Amino acid sequence: xxxxxxREQSMLYNISVLSFSGVLxxxxxxxxQVLISRMxxxxxxxxxxxxxxxxxxxxxxxxxxVRMAVTSLSAGLHAGDVxxxxxxxxxxxxxxxxxxxxxxxxxxxxxRRIAEQIIHEPHAAFALAALxxxxxxxxxxxxxxxxxxxxxxxxxxxxxNLLEQGVKIFVILFLLRTWGDVSNAxxxxxxxxxxxxxxxxxxxxxxxxxxxxx
Length: 214
What we know:
Elements: H1 11-49, H2 52-74, H3 82-109, H4 111-117, H5 125-150, H6 154-179, H7 185-213
Helix pairs in contact: 1-6, 1-7, 2-3, 2-5, 3-5, 4-5, 5-6, 5-7, 6-7
């Protein structure tokens, strides 16, 4: 009896890829949390997490809707419909840039005032600015990942998520180990936020490369 072949576009294949990558992501996430808790300290992590309410608002306003729309619209496209895919990506990027201009850029311009008057922690200003810049890169990442999910290239999205988690662990722990200081919460939070920005770059490069090949 020959081996059973699972088609790449089948539901079983997509479920298997996403389930397997999801388990690996949880394992990597657990390792990351354990290591960063030891290297960053409670104060550094606490200061870093103070900016997340603002981060979440900007993400909801600029990325969440675009991601859902791209997944839904791309599901109606065939993987071989290159022209349709290109049009969808261009329009999605235009919409994202418009939304980011309304949400992310104002926050970026006023990050110091927000840190002082809303978060009530001036030392969180750099971390806030870095995370808003990170969201700019994350928006493009979300568009490509959602597109790949919609057209059935699930493995590209799975690899992207794993690559991001792996690079994040390496970069952030390297920054903390090299320049970190547990007693300096502001520096710790800034290094973590900087690591979040840096880890997006190789992921986005990989996604663009995969997108150019479809």
